[in-house]
Amino acid sequence: MNYFNYFTEIEDTFVRRRAKHLMLSSIDWALIESWKEMGVPLHIALRGIEKAFDSWESKPRKRSIKTLLYCQEEVEAQYAEWLETRVGAESAEEKTETASTNGAAFSRETILEHVRQALARIQTTAGQISAKSEIKEALKRAASLLQDLESELVQATSVDSQKLEVSLTGIERMLSEALRNWAPQEQQETLTAEIKKQLKPYRSHMEESVYNQTFDNLFMTRLRERFGIPRLSLFYLGL
Fold it and tell me: Which of 22, 63, 117, 199 is the residue whose CA sits 20 to 30 A from 111?
């Protein structure tokens, strides 16, 4: 399983088991990102989703499953069991999954287009901020780093997707920190209230750490969207 398919594999499995096409919500994407950041292996997340649907189908209900949050408890339970049974070395299953992450996940042209689109959006956003500020300087720095990456991609004989991902997520974290420090407090408070209200129906079913991570991921997603700052990670290349 390719490293960069984490998001799309989970989406495909959820849609397949639901038997109806339903676009994942921003909360669902934030939850997937939380699993990824917690270190939940893809095969464990998929197993949890499958078991959650198996359980639901064994006791037919009038209401259908509309959100990935329904599977959250089972995914966490499967992850906890996996951690308990893990003894030092990787299992054969993990080794297979890890080995498949080597090499380029996308073509050079696809990656170049992703970097160039992100660069263009960042330059546009930086140009719209007239006053000197932390976020403007961060955007200029990000643009310079992306230009360097673009030059390397053009000249390189091969593409190492994992090393590129490290660089892109590093730039993304830098922008996120600057954005959080710069965004008006009033807007952040309004956004916080909106997200808390949106997550309220699900909070009692979520572990505190997962809730906090999902909240933060959703908060930053909304903040980026509000100020026109794109995601750089290759996870978002095909989304």
Answer: 22
